[in-house]
Each structure stands twice: as C-alpha cells, then as structure tokens.
Amino acid sequence: MEKLLENIIESNRRYTVQGELASYIPELTKANKDALGIFITTLNGEEFYAGDNEIKFTIQSISKIISLIIAIMDNGKDYVFSKVGMEPTKDSFNSIIDLELNDLNKPLNPMINAGAIATVSMIRGKDKDEVFSRILEFTKKLCGNEDLKVNESVYISEKKTGSRNRALAYFMKSTSIIEKDVEEVLDVYFKQCSIEVTSKDLSKIALVFANEGVSPWSEERIMPKEVTRIIKTIMTTCGMYDASGEFAVNIGLPSKSGVGGGILAVAPGKMGIGIVGPALDEKGNSIAGVEVLKDLSHELELSIF
Ligand code: DON
C-alpha cells in the first residue's frame, strides 16, 4: 500500500504546476504550490501515507460539513433545509447571482459559501465565541486531535478581504435567511475556515463518516447515523462544487474540498482519506489532489457506484 501511494503521489506531482494558489485570500499565497501528500486511515486502524502529508494548511470549505453537522444536530434537518437547499449548482462556490435567481428563495446548498454562512448562523450559542468554540471542539473530537488551532494570519486575511462573503451574508439578512447579527456570523465562518489541519486530520474526520458516525478510536457515537447519511449525500452531489458530477463519475467517493488545498474523501466501511495539494484548478479544487484520488479510486476500486 505504501508503495502504491508513493507511486500515485510522484506520478501526479506534475499537475501541481498547472494549478494556482488561492490568491483572493492573500495569506494563502504563502503556501507551497508544489506540495502534494496523502494520508489514509483504515477502519481497522492502519495508517498509510506518502508525499508531503505532514504540512499544515487551513481547512477552509471542508469546515462546511462540520458546521452542517452541528446545525442539524442543534435544529433538526427540516429546519436547516428550510433555510438552505440541497441542490447542486453549475455556478462557482462564491456565486452571487445564484442567490437571488433561484426558485428556492434560499442558498442552493450548504457547501457553497452562501449556504455555509447561513448554516453557521443556525448554530446555537450565547455569543459568537461560544458558537465558534463548539465548532472547534467538535472538529477536535472528529479528528481525535486536541491540538487544533486557528491560523490567526489566515483568519485576519480572510476577514479583511471577505467582501464577497459579506455581500452574500447581508443579502441573506435582507431576506431573513440569516436572523443573527451578520458580522458575528461571518466572524465565526472566517474562523472556522482558518482552522489549521493536516492530511492526517482530514483522514480521521473522513473515517468517522466511513464508520457511520462512530469514532473508531474512542468507539463513541459522535453523530447519529442519519446525519452521516445526509452529509455523505450532500458531499457527493455538491462537495466538489461545479465539478461534483465529473468527480462522482471519475472517483465516486463522498468528498469535500477547500481552497487551502485539502480534500477529505470517504470510502464508506473502508477508510478515510486526507489529501493536501495547495495548487488549485479553476473551480477551487486541488488540481493534483483530484488526480491522486482518481488513481487511488481506480487502483483500489473504491467508487461507491
Ligand atoms: O469563504 C471562502 O471563500 C473561503 N473561506 C472558503 C472557500 C473554499 O474553501 C472554497 N473551496 N474550494
């Protein structure tokens, strides 16, 4: 297995030069564009890794699945999906046009920025600090890693330059999708996107989904099985944004990407996969990371379809 992973990483490194770092968050341009790594944890506790698997990066949009879990556990699925849709979109993750011109009168799904910001607004807590602390603690539990922290420079960079997210959020306030104070909701959203992880952390989160919500190491049920089913479905249809269809055909694993270069992929009943590769394609997915997953899914026959 280790040999296989090394071969897959080395043969796909060439794709990193074709991608770009996310420059709309200035701090993300400090990442190493050539990096590429993978970490796999299997349900029977084995760990396999290759490449630059140890580098740290910010979780970015992968955090959207974590806030969705908490929002559903706090409010129930019917309430959450009364404010956010469950339909994929052909538009980009930060699309503004999508928000007003769809028939649902709500963001299309919880994986695009508008839907994720609305989801964060539904998480319970007496103030923004308590809401964020619940997200961070839940993420630590999912990873089995007590040391997770916010990358302060990325958080500040996002907060300073997040005009587009602000536009989405204020629009949603005007239509009562968001009921709380907009700046407080955005602050939590920027912070959750700036939690720093490794490919190992992502593989551990994915493993909890692969195990239908029970932590394989503590054997604690972290979320109801029904919640894992919803999240895996949304990841499959919307997790890779407007590339989700092609990704489902070529790879066939519930997955979520982030502009920090991470991809989390779930092989149900088998393994959790974490990828890092900060060079992105034009849709905001790790360009080489997608190729790595393509080879891995093919070699190990992982597609769920
Ligand atoms: O809101 C943003 O734009 C970022 N914090 C997260 C976007 C993201 O990761 C999109 N993923 N590919």
Task: Identify the notable features of this structure and list them briefly.
2 domains, Beta-lactamase, binds 6-diazenyl-5-OXO-L-norleucine, alpha+beta, Glutaminase, EC 3.5.1.2, 46% helix, 305 residues, five-stranded antiparallel β-sheet, hydrolase, three-stranded antiparallel β-sheet, acetylation
Structure characterization notes:
It comes from Clostridium mobile. There is one protein chain. With 305 residues, this protein is an alpha+beta fold. It has 2 domains: 2-57 and 198-299, DD-peptidase/beta-lactamase superfamily (Beta-lactamase), CATH 3.40.710; 61-193, DD-peptidase/beta-lactamase superfamily (Beta-lactamase), CATH 3.40.710. Helices cover 46% and strands 11% of the residues. Strands 2-1-8-7-6 form a 5-stranded antiparallel β-sheet. Strands 3-5-4 form a 3-stranded antiparallel β-sheet. A hairpin with a 4-residue loop joins β1 (37-42) and β2 (47-51). α5 (113-121) crosses α8, α6 runs parallel beside α9 (182-193) and α7 (152-161) crosses α9 (182-193). The chain starts with a helix and ends in a 5-residue tail after the last helix. The mean pLDDT is 97. The structure holds 6-diazenyl-5-OXO-L-norleucine (DON). Residues 60-61, 93-94, 113, 158, 165, 193, 257-259, 284 line the site of 6-diazenyl-5-OXO-L-norleucine. 6-diazenyl-5-OXO-L-norleucine (DON) binds next to loops.
